Amino acid sequence: xxxxxxxxxxxxxxxxxxxxxxxxxxxxxxxxxxxxxxxxxxxxxxxxxxxxxxxxxxxxxxxxxxxxxxxxxxxxxxxxxxxxxxxxxxxxxxxxxxxxxxxxxxxxxxxxxxxxxxxxxxxxxxxxxxxxxxxxxxxxxxxxxxxxxxxxxxxxxxxxxxxxxxxxxxxxxxxxxxxxxxxxxxxxxxxxxxxxxxxxxxxxxxxxxxxxxxxxxxxxxxxxxxxxxxxxxxxxxxxxxxxxxxxxxxxxxxxxxxxxxxxxxxxxxxxxxxx
Length: 275
What we know:
The chain has 275 residues and is of the alpha/beta class.
């Protein structure tokens, strides 16, 4: 199995950021080296939250210790998520370059955690610009939601055909765009790569806990790192996400224990060609 470095937020309660990414990847049997950019009591959507930033200096010391112990050289995948400042973006860029100096074939997944509808950006504008200018050009795979895709490409993403145009203009080798509005009150996940643009869609749920984007940002690369091709990985990751949401019901937190249960028969998701 793969060794994966994940750089994102860490919450004490809930399953967002690293608390979603890590189990999603470990469910495949992958080893995860998790570096927290910020530690929070819970997701910031709740009325009360306490947080402390983990400085880039501390993160650098942690990564150097990991490297000195001989674990950084064997990294196959790097995933970056929530980066609260431009200095954290600089650290992420340096980390990707350091890992690729040892393993040029390491897959870099940029989950550009910028914001969402209806709130908009929830990181500083300059940090968002730095992610666009410094990290996306390095990425093999980007996993934006519809708002982030629109912000990064400066194009509307309110329908499938608009999303198709936007993913083709993002500039990364592969794009997995989530939460794209589709026909009939459905939400689509688009995959764009050298073979074209395809999508799966599911019925919009009345309530979805935070963390689904983080979960999918772990499930899809996790499936790729397990040897699946992109399209089977899309279908598998989407089906696993639906299984988790089905087991979560109306609760306010994702039930990720489902990932470690004997794998049920997954609901088949149809892959369609985006036109």
